[in-house]
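Quick illustration for those who missed Monday's session on complexes.
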Amino acid sequence: MKSFTLPSYAKLNLALRVVARRPDGFHELVTLFERIDLHDDVSFAPAKEGAFSMVCDDKRVPCDERNLIWKVASVLVKGEKVHKGAKIVIKKRIPVAAGLAGGSSNAAAALQGLNKLWDLRLSQAKLLSYARMIGSDVAFFLYDVPFAIGTGRGEMIKPLAVKAALWHFLVVPQAPLLTKDVYEHFAVSAQSFTNTGSDVNIILRSLEKNDPSGVGAGLFNDLEAPILVLKPHLGKLKARVLRHDTLGVSFSGSGPSVFAVMASEKEAQHLKKIFSRTYRQVFVVKTK
Ligand code: ATP
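Prediction with adenosine-5'-triphosphate bound:
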């Protein structure tokens, strides 16, 4: 088997409703995922029996058992009795701990990549069951679709047959947030389980009509309250983006990424230019 490279895309949450806290401590969600074209590259190369190594060009990413790719390799080695080795190289473009699911997406790429490199021939159902063992956002990336509804912890995926394509402006401030901390603060934040009246179905209907204005108007994220408890200054960033000509603004996942739905690529580029004066990580991204 020769070496090969897989793209590993990021996601945005166009909607995120926290439904309940479960007895196992996790939260029950309904979320609308969008895959975007911002991506890492994950390369896979064969290695000597039992030899596994990984490197990443971003120093903040641990390249040991804490890395989700490492976890994928361990569960596959154990579960499928693999003796082969692998050398993995990650080229990082997705900001880390940003609510864009970079680690989860890398894990999905690793499931697909190692399945191929080690010639395991695992079915999609088997890959999904491994994905759910690794993390809540991993399963979405195993479906080759731009939009999907996630329920449970976000790991039960219903792919959507919608053809919409959205342009976004995305700004990632230097304020890494850990998903775990944000959920811990959800319980104590003012919003606990109150329904604000927003509904995933409203955005869904706008997506079906390929109506970016409707999507923008319907954006919501129940994690906004705990994000702002942990990092109050992020409210100012969101307000600042809202003062510009956008179709809607929200946080992605557990933050701190703030994204806007834009009417066109040109308008997204215009916002990028303005915010690049004060923020280092600004992007124009689209549905992938
Ligand atoms: P999610 O939206 O799934 O919670 P996120 O975008 O908020 O994810 P990640 O970029 O996945 O966050 O990183 C969260 C933590 O996971 C980081 O602190 C990092 O140390 C760790 N991590 C483990 N594996 C990876 C990986 N392959 N890429 C990036 N971070 C990783």
